[in-house]
Amino acid sequence: MTSRRVPETRHGVPETRTHVPETDPRATLRGSLPDRYLTPEDLVGIFQLESVETVYAWRRKRTGPPGIRIGKHLRYDPADVHAWVTHNKTDTDAA
């Protein structure tokens, strides 16, 4: 005898599954950056820097993306990082 799989039901009504798009539209808006605050270590990985000290030097010199303190931790808003990169692009980067 062959067993047949019955769709799961909730209160006697078959459950319908909705299609979830493969890409999150928020990722497109944020330039594929994560939807969470970034750590200094994240910036090291994103920009392929030698060490986290470079990120801290940017902050001291006020030349990097704006960061915020959350308690004792330094974090960066992905939207601010994306805006900083866009603002600091030069015409030679486009070529």
Description of the structure:
By secondary structure, the protein is an alpha+beta fold. The protein has a domain at 33-89: Arc Repressor Mutant, subunit A, CATH 1.10.10. Helix content is 39%, strand content 13%. The protein contains 5 helices and 4 strands; from the N terminus they run ββαααββαα. The chain has a two-stranded antiparallel ribbon. α2 (40-47) crosses α3. It is globular and about 30 Å long. Mean pLDDT is 77; it is low at 24-29.
Give the terminus-to-terminus CA distance: 67 Å
The major sheet is characterized as: 2 strands, antiparallel
What is the percent of helical residues?
A: 25-40%
Strand order of the largest sheet: 1-2
Proportion of strand residues:
5-15%
Mean pLDDT across all amino acids: 77
- For the record, the CATH class of the domain at 33-89 is Mainly Alpha
Number of helices: 5
Shape: globular
Query: CATH topology of the domain at 33-89, what is it called?
Result: Arc Repressor Mutant, subunit A
Radius of gyration: 22 Å
Number of DSSP strand runs: 4
CATH-defined architecture of the domain at 33-89: Orthogonal Bundle
Kindly name the structural category.
Answer: alpha+beta
The helix-strand sequence is EEHHHEEHH
The low-pLDDT segments are 24-29
